[in-house]
Amino acid sequence: MENVDDNLNLDGRSARYGNFTNYYEFHPTEFRIKLIPNNVWDLGGNDIVCLDVGCNSGKLAQALHQHISSTIAFTFKNKKDVPKCYILGVDVSQELIDKAVETNNNPYITFKTVDVCSKSGKNVINQYLSCFNRTSFDIVFCFSVTMWIHLNYGDEALKEFLLYVSNQTDMLVLEPQPWRCYLRAVRRLKRAENGTFEKFSKLKMRLSIEDDIENILIEECKFNQVLKTEETPWGRIITFYKRKKKHKQINKINPMRVDHC
User: Fold this and answer.
1) What is the pTM for the complete model shown?
2) Which three-class secondary structure state does DSSP give residue 13?
3) What is residue 247's predicted lDDT score, i.e. its pLDDT?
4) Which pLDDT score is estimated for 7?
5) What residue ranges of the chain have pLDDT lower than 50?
6) Which domains can be identified in the chain, with CATH numbers?
7) What pLDDT score was predicted for residue 178?
8) Residues in domain Bin3-type SAM (predicted)?
9) Residue 159's CB: how many other CB atoms inside 10 A?
10) How many helices and strands in the chain, by DSSP H and E?
11) Contact between residue 125 and residue 50 where contact means Cβ atoms under 8 Å apart
């Protein structure tokens, strides 16, 4: 298992919130994408609208869009009207979002500076959904973000986050950090600014954090776990959850509308 702690660009904010500017140099997108099977997506003939929480500089969002779009193209290769995939990537770092916007040439991907734990952030997400006449996403991605919410805001905030994202979708793709990553994050913050996570000593969900998250999603959010991937080279497992209830059928949307959201 690779330990990249010494290679990440560290300053006080990145060490506290995980906004590493060189993140994808040490967590390449292809290692995650190759673990995702093509048949895991629910493709019912409608456009697929996705949310990527903690998108960093957007490279993984772009790779996910290509992966899903390729699957759609193959599935509907004999159809005249092929569904589209749309992704909203959000991150709390304005610097990373600026970088994502600068490198994005795909009109079906939108990047916004958003704190999903804030009311204003939720409003931005709802505004995006309104462009599709929807109240929820087909897929929500959360790659390596749960730890940062947990460390900075505590047990209840993590639970509230999981409840929120699960209410936003019928399919959740989650890559939680295991407890060993928490210990590394604590050491990084001390090294970067001699700081501490004030909530760390008060956390009740600790060694079994991955199981705790899974239990919340299954028992309280009413999701079923449908797939667990193998570990990435950096020791993370991607888990797919689905809700039994399906979205209502909707009409396709003109991509030009998204540009104004």
Assistant:
1) 0.91
2) helix
3) 44
4) 53
5) 1-2, 247-257, 260
6) 12-260 (3.40.50.150)
7) 98
8) 30-246
9) 18
10) 10, 7
11) no
Identify the pLDDT of residue 253: 46
Cα of 60 vs its chain's centroid, Å = 9
State the Cα–Cα distance between residues 35 and 87, nearest whole angstrom.
20
Rg of the chain, C-alpha, whole Å? 18
> What residues are paired with 174 via a beta bridge?
142, 239
Summarize pLDDT for 33-65 with one digit per residue, the tens: 999 999 999 888 999 999 999 999 999 999 999
pLDDT number for residue 249: 41
Structure tokens at 146: 């749960």
DSSP per-residue letters across 215-260: HIIIIIS--EEEEEEEEPTTS-EEEEEE-SSPPPP-----GGGGGG
Q: What does each C-alpha distance from 212 to 47, 162, 223, 230, 236 come to in angstroms?
A: 33, 11, 14, 19, 16
Look at the block and give the residue holding tokens 């209502």.
248
Positive or negative: CA dihedral 152, 209, 178, 228:
negative
In sequence order, what are the residues at sequence separation of 6 or more whose Cβ sits closer than 8 angstroms to the Cβ of residue 108? 65, 69, 84, 85, 86, 87, 255, 258
Handedness of CA 81, 67, 145, 11 (dihedral sign): negative
